[in-house]
């Protein structure tokens, strides 16, 4: 009671500044405490700040669409729901595209493009794609997006992967290159495979693998396949490397 009396006695701008430090879940709980807390928690300036901080890519590209928007809380909740639906569609796409826990790079990059098109924020990736119960290929799509599109620093990403308990999950990346020419004859196509953890990719210690995933099938690379590791259906070349 003393706390709410104190909040009531503060200037509105100071009270808003304090409340704006709350996470969304805590802010919603705070709004249920009193009429005053409800009015304060519904402040447009608070929700505008929450919106732009969570979705900087979306906010910068669409700022002209709502320069004088007056219900940022409604917009925030609407976008949160929309991205949840989009994340679920990406999950279904990956599940349908992956055969024997393996995914062709064209489908993998299509999943990444879906995140780019929706302008997911880092918090969205954590909420919707970094679940340890999900297929590791979905986790990998999230890591790829954070590194290449959001520019998330390796240490920050590693910390989140550990908190979500997926840093030690592994994938196997296999790619085929066009055979080299030798004295007028083209040799057999070359196959390469690497067994790597999500944490390894997050630190970009293995730029070679991340480069293969970014480029996909281009120039000399004929095919790229990404496989989950740790399943009974894991391809033999991944099983051998994991032993």
Explain the overall architecture:
58% of the residues lie in helices and 13% in strands. The chain has 243 residues and is α+β, with helices and mostly antiparallel strands. A four-stranded antiparallel beta sheet has the order 1-6-2-5, sandwiched between helices. Helix 5 (44-54) packs parallel to helix 7, helix 7 (72-97) packs antiparallel against helix 8 and helix 8 packs across helix 10 (136-150). The longest helix is centred in the middle third of the chain and has 26 residues, at 72-97. The relative contact order is 0.10.
Blueprint (SSEs and pairs):
Elements: H1 2-9, H2 12-19, H3 24-30, H4 35-41, H5 44-54, H6 56-62, H7 72-97, E1 102-104, H8 105-118, H9 122-129, H10 136-150, H11 154-163, E2 170-177, E3 181-182, E4 185-186, E5 190-197, H12 198-202, H13 207-215, E6 221-228, H14 236-242
Antiparallel strand pairs: 1-6, 2-5, 2-6, 3-4
